[in-house]
Request: fold
Amino acid sequence: MEFNDELQNDITQNIQFIGDEIPLVDPFPIKVFPTEIQEIIISACDGLNLPIDFFAGSILFAASIAIGNSFQVEIKQGWNETAALWIALVGNSGTSKSHPLTLALDPVFKKQSSEFDKYQRCLTEYEEWLQMPKDERERIGKTGMDKPTIKKYLLSDYTPEALVFHHQKNLRGMGVYSDELAGWINNFNRYNKGNEEQFWLSAWSGKPLITDRRGSGSFHVKVPFISVGGTIQTALIRDLAKGSKGKNGFIERLLFVFPDNLKKLPWSNSCWSVNQRSKYEQIIDRLLIEEPGIEDAGVVKPLILPISANAKKILWDWQAVNTELSNSTDNDQRKAIYAKLEVYAVRFSLIIHRLNCVLGKADAEVIDTNSITAGIILADYFRKNALKVLYILNNSSPIDALPKDKKKFYEALPEKFSYKQAVDTAKGYRFSEVTLRRLLANRRIFEKLSHGNYEKIF
Reply:
């Protein structure tokens, strides 16, 4: 793979791309993948009538989970990065978002199913052992057994405490799969009044996770790896930026796959080649086989991969250009996007590197120039998608759809207010209390901070 000239062209285009107009998003650059993966993507999308962007993005997510904590990249001494991603497939209803994601994750689901079967067998053996008399246990040489635990790779419905519990049982890492990402967001703090947003910000940054479960003790993951993937309808993008999530860098951590001119496609009479599907499953399985080392204290010890000197120069040169882009704008959200993409460029590079390694196309002990260049090309693709989302967030709002009197009422409220303040303000607009309560219940424009206290979202 020769990327250097194409990368230079991408950088030149991105230097120019600093205006306020809605960006046009190029197709997903599947050229960053090994040839075998490119053929798998084309075969599946042609055979099943799937959007290439969605399936390619889903493969990136599946590979991220499969790599887990087995490997990290050393950017410089004391700064390592994993392959963890937060990825969102964006489109209107009926545009085939879910199918590519479940298809790409199928090998991971199968791995989890295999682990569940093993857990069931061990649990049966353990329960039989519990019923044995002591002399029988001694006769068969089983005088002590621990209750088995299941090793999970994917979770969909969970509390933060349950997530950390299962992560402690599988230190290589977890994937969170949410068919509707808006549901993932809306379920924050569903089970408690804690700050779940902060939990996720820490998880993305690889900071230690500590939770306490009543009656079950404390759980601690010192080297977390949690990748998140799912779909979201275009109309619900605003839900991702509700409340503090639009201010604390949360939304800027999401990677959006948001193709232009996306339309619902007819059903296909053909299928995904059995041979190509088998090749894909074998590749993901080979990534899943790699296990990180475990230290005595239960701390994971990934294999740390250095970046070659030539690759490091490419990365540092691109980071300088990215810094120029960041310094050229006064928009804080843009600055945050550019900053997160510097991290993601390295994470993408690790994923591409490992895919090349399992196919025998890269030196397994060092991140090379092609892997770094591929990561940068992906970062620039996701930059344009992020700016497209940012344009939507900044140029329209649910407030615009309100009747004139309700819009004026909204504007008259302070940023944070009590229910009593809302009642007093509503009197000037002759709202009934029923109308007021219905309006305050609109979670797209108000966030309930606590009993009787609210905050405007826009």
Remarks:
- The first helix runs from residue 4 to 16.
